[in-house]
Amino acid sequence: MENIVKVGGNVSASINFAMQQNYVPIIRDLTVYNTSGRDLEELELTVTSDPVFTKNYCCKIGSLAADKAFEIAPVRITLLTEFLFSLTEKMSGNLTVTVTEKGSEIFTEDIPIELLAYDEWSGLYYMPEIIAAFAVPNHPEVQAVLREASELLRKWTGDPSFTAYQTKNPNNVKLQMAAIYNVLQKRGIVYNEPPASYEAVGQRIRLPHKVLENKQGTCLDLAVLYVSCLEAAGLFPLIVFIQGHAFAGCWLDEETFADCMTDDVSAMEKRTVPGAEQILLVECTDITDGREVDFDRALKHGRDHLNDPSRFTAAVDIKRSRGSGIRPIPLRLNNDRTASSVSEEHTENEERRISDAAPSELSAPLSGVISEDSGQPMTKMKIWERKLLDFSLRNTLLNFRPTKNSFRIMTADLGELEDRLSDGKDFRILEIPSEWRMSVRDFRTFEIENEKDLIYSIAEQEFASGRIRTFLSEEELNQSLKSLYRAARSSMEENGANTLFLALGFLRWFETERSEKPRYAPVVLIPIDIVRSVRSKGYLIRSRQEETQINVTLLEYLKQDHGLNIPGLDPLPLDDHGIDLPLVFNTIRQCIMDKPRWNIEEAAFVGLFSFSQFVMWSDLRSRSAEIESNKIVSSLINGSLSWKPKEFDVTTDNIDEKIGPSDMAVPLTADSSQLVAAAAAADGQSFVLHGPPGTGKSQTIANMIANALYKGKTVLFVAEKMAALNVVQKRLAAIGLDPFCLELHSNKTNKSAVLGELNKALEVGRIKSPEDYERTAEKLHSRRKALDGIIEAMHIRRSFGKSVYEAIKICEKNSAYIGMVKISSDILEKADRTTADNMSEIVRRFADAAEAVGNYSEDPLCGVGSREYSMELKDDFARMTAHCKNTADEAKPAFEKLLSAFGLSADSGLAMLRASAELAGILSDNGAVLNGLLGAENYEVSKANLEKLVSDGQSYASLTDKISSVFEPSAADIDAAAAKLQWKQAEQSWFLPKMIKQNKLVKQLRLYAKSPADITKENITEYYSLMESAAALKKSINETHANISGMLGSIFTGTSTDWNAVSEALKKTGSVKNILMKYPRISMNGADSELSSYSAAANGFLKELDSLCKKFDISLDDADTLDSISERLGRYSENADGLRNITAFNLADSELCEAGLECISRCFKNSEISAAGLSGAFEGNLYYSLALKAISEDDRLKTFNGRRYDDLIRQYKEIIGTFRQMTVQELCARLSANVPSSGTSGAADSELGILKRAIKSNGRMMSVRKLFDQIPSLLRRLCPCMLMSPISVAQYIDPSFPKFDLVIFDEASQLPTSEAVGTIARAENAVIVGDPKQLPPTSFFSSNRVDEENADIEDLESLLDDCLAVSMPQEYLKWHYRSRHESLIAFSNSKYYDNKLYTFPSPDDLVSRVTVIHPEGFYDKGKTKQNKAEAQAVVAEIVRRLSSETLRSESIGVVTFSSVQQNLIDDMLLEEFRKHPELEEADRKSKEPIFIKNLENVQGDERDIILFSVGYGPDAEGKVSMNFGPLNRDGGWRRLNVAVSRARKQMIVYSVLRPDQIDLSRTRSDGVAGLKSFLEFAERGSGTLAAHTASSAERRDDIVSGIAAAITERGYNVTCGIGCSEFKVDIGIIDPENENKYLLGILLDSDTGSASYTACDRFVSQPDVLSGLGWRTFRVWTMDWLDDPKRTTDEIISAAKKAEDDREPVYAEETVTISLDFERDDVQQSANAAAYVSAQFKSLGSSEQFYDPALSSKIKAAASEILETESPISRKLLIKKVISRWGITRSGNKVEEIFNKTAAAIPKTITADEDRVFFWKKGQDPEEYGIYRRDDNSEMKRSADDIPSQEIFCAVREVLSEQGGMSESALIRETAKKFGFTRKGTIIESVIGYAVRNAAEKGKLSISESGNITLP
Predict the structure, then answer these.
(1) What is the pLDDT of residues 481-524, one digit of tens each?
(2) Residue 1470 belongs to what H/E stretch?
(3) CB atoms within 10 A of CB 653
(4) DSSP structure string for 1336-1363
(5) What is the per-residue DSSP string for 1049-1105?
(6) Helices 1059-1078 & 939-964, crossing angle to 10 degrees?
């Protein structure tokens, strides 16, 4: 059998019971490769085993396209537990992998596998951590050991308890280890030599109880026993392997390694240093009989094993292995052995002289915990606080020790040094001076007592020259500075926090009064930079001009743990130049006066310190209740959503419909998934936004911010990485929003820069709104609607269950059958989805049945119509057809005679056979044939006459029978008619005559009666009637015409004729006549008397034949001759086995016909369509008709014209560009409207005044936070968007600052929740942006560690993971834009995103842009951990590219697996830059400088070219360790995902390691498996990427195939469905001159297009991206192709020819081309201000006339006129103005009375402010009043109490809008100025103060705790 597929995968070399119990997969994955060159269907893979140690496994793959692969992962094979447990010896087995296609085997392979004994360990080369499964801490024998050991603990400590790590005292751990050691030592165990190379190939393990029972064991057996006991005691043990030996170890603290196994000897060495032990190593063979080695010596022996690092192999961490799911193997216990009996057996060991002395104490550990909040409930908030505040001795802020990441400097005066740095002076750092005479080791200490005068002298002299000396040699200094420089740079880039400080002064302190070891904590820390110069080969330090910090962590620690509250140091006291250091030191000295030995050491160190988290800790601690009240924080605490998300029904497929262009401000290009995210954020949703690599997160965030600002919201954007903030800030700046967005990353909080940004916002001016904004939006909307309409019309599901496009696809697929089947209009009208599907299913069933039958007309059983089948029926059919054939043969002579007798030919058909047999039978029967009737000219008339004669005769006979039964024969002579008349006459007579006459008649008739008494008066008339009728019939019969009677011949004998015989003769004659009429060829001339003998045989056959046909529904043709019938019966008999198929066909046929699809059956039976084409013919014609019907009924399709829509697309793109420009201007106009005009002079204590004063003084004596605290309202208006790091939020945004409407977190997968909750609480809603499949937060960059380089990397909980865990609503970004070649993202998309990312193929997609280079070299595993060969190759490539003018334009990034390799490449590149300074200059001037990063810090970065150095690989001896650092850990695959998705244009992988050298059987790490797959991908391309589901196999689009075929016919080669993801370029025409590139890409309005949800996606974004990748594209409309395929093909070929003529691709790089030159508005006049217009004065009479009642109407008119003009107006002023027209100057009671009567009749609204009454004209709403009026009329100017509070509020609002918040006094003053009042008075203060308070009560103003008034 030829294998037409290949199967590859990762299969375990061995398996045992322990592996099965710990879910170790026997097969990790399998990949099926289709190598057949054709598509395979109905594939199925099975795995079986021999012997049977697994259950059979089966996976249905389905279809698999040619040259594609299908991956099965995981392969869930169930191992048989009992079988593996029963194995006592190793044996060989096989796994058989079989692949079948449609049930036929196409591949099989046997894979050998070793089946290990249940207690056999497989060794270090395969799953070494499985050794942990043999440690069984819960066995009774182990528990017995612990009970004995507890007695030793009681003896040593007085407490028998195994407390594990509860006491936090390493000595207690050592005591517990020693107690167990001593007990085991007493057991008399004998040592056995292990087998050779056991650590590599494995060995049988004596389980702990067996060692104790049998008292013997190898070193590994003993180590397993010891760690079992340690684990049972709650400790964290290890098993350590060296060449040929194994021993145990145990952690002294609750720690584990990052991985289950480590092969890094330095990791053990650094943790076993005497005096600083974290791990104790124990030589377990020392417990064996005869050695008598105490525990301390056993520890020494264990530690000595590391003296030769080359012998170290690995260490397995038992606790860490348990965390990875490796459990102890279950064991069967002997029920007879109990724990107590076990103990009793070992009493004999008491005779051995084993010392019970306690071991020696450890030296004080360096990692003790200072403070522990014991007894406090560990709430979530408490956990977050602890994560932020580190009070352990590892924190360098509390326990500083000089390391390579720090150095001491020589200083003469710390205060002078601080002052000069504050003044901005730089200092060059130099090595130790040549005149130095101290020991090299003394420079690191604080207690330098000798040579102090020398230090002072050197420092003072060098200081004056701008130099600072250190205590390091030149080489040491360079290494230290380089290390500091790199660490500080990484911390800044990754965490946004400066960690490089100059520490001035150190507090010497002690943990307790008894402590002997002093600790040192820095006091004052100055943020500095180290500036590196390649040319000068030196380093400078300079102040970062940020605020100098007091060590707040130290202050808090002293307060919490030592009760020392040191006041006045936060903020630090200042002197003329900077910090007053002497005052700081003296303040601390005063507070520690009572602490013996404590003091301040006035030393200076440069080092790494991080106390930024203290600010966040303080934030949480001080406002925990407020933070917990936030809905998102509350959810994170409770573990579930604590709020119900508001309804939001906008999705990617309806956003065009739901949201109009002017409803959103999206200045940058956005796809539908990005638009939904922006819309959701602006709608007030809180959600997680998934942003896989390259999906445009920063662009989405920029659009999200812009849209939120457009909606009037305030936004806080938070990112820990400075790069992430910069990217978004640049995008916002590109669209003109930078004046309104304040960036405050902790790296960029320079006060001057902040003030400069705020001043820029103040000076932005008032931007004018675009005039045609709404009209352009409507125009854009209409175009968008039209474009969406055609796609919707093509792809919307119609009533028949498919879209028009799908229907046309079906038509195209079955184009050969179009027109062959006519679908009735009834079916088309009734065709809904169910009906269409049902009909298709019926046709499919018919086709299946037809396929079995084959050619119907040639089927042996053609004509059999039976629809029932059983084996019994089949037997009957065979028997009956055979018998019937024999009968036919026997009846043949009879038929020949009959045919001859009737004048018929011998080959007459079945009809004649039946007629002749029937006629013969008739003639043979008794009875005459009326030949006269047969020959009558008018047969029917003659027949009718005869029938009447027969009828009369039969009636006559019946009457005579009745009469003769009553009367004698003589009664026939009675004249019944005359007698009947006499009776009637008698009845008319009088009574007596009547009686006499009737009696007479009765008597006369009785004379003839057989029984006279039966004749009575009552029945006499009945008898007369009978006689009368009989007489009439007799007469008629006797008078019959001779012609009629002659036809009867001798049969007719008058009234005595046998009428039944005549009737039978008539029937017989009729039957004969019918036959003769039906078959005129029959002649009666040859009929003879012998016919009867022939007819019996003939009719017997026909009867049998009819019975057969009836039973099996056999149809016979009238033309069938006897011979053909016989032949057919014989054929039936011989092919009876085919009855099953024909009956199934008949059943399907009847179902088909019942459904109205006889046309399908007819076409098949007539051989017009084969069985294989039936379904296609039906569906093709059905959906063709339905498509045409749908098109004719839809105006969008009926009138479609492709060229018109191409023009519409062009218009749409043009309008989008215009509208995008307008959107930016409209957004900026709205934002600028909130900015006070630049000419506004603010009140001194207003927010505007404070800000302007700070700008003018450059913020002197005012910190950034203090400034923000004083201008909260103005700051939000100036900069409604702030871009910050979590640290800067806590540092600069006070909790009382008004809440933001929205906070957006970027790279949330790397942000610890503890650092984010304080920021979350500062906003109403949050958008959490990140990717759970990328890096989690890590402790990699923690810099407060004593030995950071040796610290384990710890993955922390992330904000993103926690938000997902509480089921926060989620949105997804789906389109990938970063990669300029699809191969760059194909691996990640396939491996980690299930191919759900939409990615874009490139025109050179046929060649991968991921390549691998394998340098000749090795990984220096045991020493430097460097890979110099890879580093040299990487640096050489960088130099090559920088040296090329062409290649230099492409940015470069280097990614390594480890920081060691990162530093090596950095050093090598730096050396090259020293040799070639022009290369460094070229890099420095490039748009994106080179970065060199490792797996932990590369997330968020991208470059054109990525050079990837794996680093790990074979060592000098060719051995390959399966330890790949962080990649081995849980989640290591996420690091790989980040690393391999950074490239835009190309990735070059440098690896001495080859994929086949990675043995996955030796590790369970997904990260390592991913690395192997990636290296395979880099070597062999995308062919290694397998589909994960059958549905991801190639999907055929028959329209695409049809167009492709048409193009191919014209001479071009094409590829269909180009792309690795769901998005495809439908057709690619291959360049005839370059087979690796596409000449032209063709886009259809296909399913791929319909998956693009918006018109902009389909017609703008995606074509633009493709164009940017170098594609030339041509759009084909399906409707055009359907209408005229030839014309469409011609247009495609024309476009291809044009592309051939101009092959140079035009790359359309996406650039922001928005003009920021906006037109400004003149803002000199306030929109809310108006001049006070007074009514024109008119003299209306004298004062006397005013009192005339007749003039009341005149007074009313005057009052109405003034009210109409000056409303609102105070009642007082209105009276004054009215009476002035009559010359009255003062009001009195009479005037008041007259005015009141007049005013009552005027329509108006009245309001009152305290005792002031105001009139408003009709129609004015006081609450909606929106202006204030300035009255410059000096003659009749309003006083303050004439102004209503509503009008005053308008001025107040404008003041606050212009100047921000201010005090009430200032607000009253500034408001008064708006009305033209130059001085405040009592009335002004009262009136305006009332208006302010009233507005505040109504919620229109906010008053802070400090009394500042702001707009809410």
Answers:
(1) 888 888 887 777 665 567 889 999 999 998 877 777 888 999 99
(2) helix 1459-1475
(3) 13
(4) PPBSTT----TTGGGSPP-B--BHHHHH
(5) GGG-BTBTS-HHHHHHHHHHHHHHHHHHHH-TT--STT--TTHHHHHHHHHHHHHHH
(6) 160
